[in-house]
Every structure is written in structure tokens, then in C-alpha cells.
Amino acid sequence: QVQLVESGGRLVQAGDSLRLSCAASGRTFYHIAWFRQAPKKEREFVAAISWFGGSTYYGDFAKGRFTISRDNAKNTMYLQMNGLRPEDTAVYYCAADRSIDSLRGSGGPATSWGQGTQVTVSS
Predict the structure, then answer these.
(1) What φ, ψ does residue 102 adopt, rounded to 5°?
(2) For 39-60, what is each residue's pLDDT tens digit?
(3) Core-most of 35, 63, 73, 87, by most CB within 10 Å?
(4) First-to-last CA distance in the chain?
């Protein structure tokens, strides 16, 4: 099992940039993903990165604006978000799984989740 703690969420203005962090502890040989959930909406896949960082995947809305990365030496993963829009307002969750396919979907029974960090983008 891996424990995940997100940080970095806050109130920003439209057009701003923000970097979220996800610190992992415990067993760390996992692929990592970011999801988000806005009020009254389904949880949505944002991006995923393989254990060695060689493969990355993005939701359509994230392509060209968001970048997922990881520093395995620090057991920390990041989500760099540029050109933020009000519709990016959501709670952002970090997730870990040994199956990248599970993460590219909506997570699976073996997926570990963080507690989430709130990102609010004002217009």
C-alpha cells in the first residue's frame, strides 16, 4: 500500500499557473495519476505517468496546458498547470496503482488515493 498526500492547491486567477505536489510513502513502485472532481460532477482523469516516467497520458482538456512529472528520488509527483480556467476549479486527487490502465480509466480496486487539494480559479 502507498500513502499519498497532495499539496499546492489554492485560489488563483484565470490565466495563472499552479503546481500541485503529491508526496508518496510506503511501497512506492507505482504508476501515478491525477484526477479531479468538480462539484456535482463525476471524477475526471487528468494525467498519468509511468513508474520510470517514460510514458505520460493526458485527458483531452489537459493536453498542452498541464504537465505531469515525478521525482522518484524524492518520492514526489507533480502536476504543473498553466493557463488555468474557471472550469479547472475542482478538488485534485493523486492516485497510485500498479496498473497504468486502471489509472487511465477511473481507478480500480487496488488504487490508492490521496485526500485531495482544492484548486479554485476565479474569472
Answers:
(1) -65, -45
(2) 999 999 999 999 887 899 999 9
(3) 35
(4) 39
Short-list 65, 23, 18, 25, CA closest to 46 = 65
Q: Which three cell numbers stand for residue 74?
A: 524524492
Q: Which amino acid is at 108?
A: G
Strands annotated E in 1-123: 2-7, 11-13, 18-26, 31-37, 44-49, 56-58, 66-71, 76-81, 90-97, 112-113, 117-122
19-28, pLDDT tens digit by residue? 999 999 876 6
The Cα 55–Cα 104 span in angstroms is 12
pLDDT surpassing 70 at residue 74: yes
Amino acid at 31: H
d(CA 24, CA 77): 8
Q: Are 95 and 79 in contact (CB under 8 A)?
A: no
Q: How far is CA 83 from its chain centroid? A: 16
Span 29-44, average pLDDT: 94
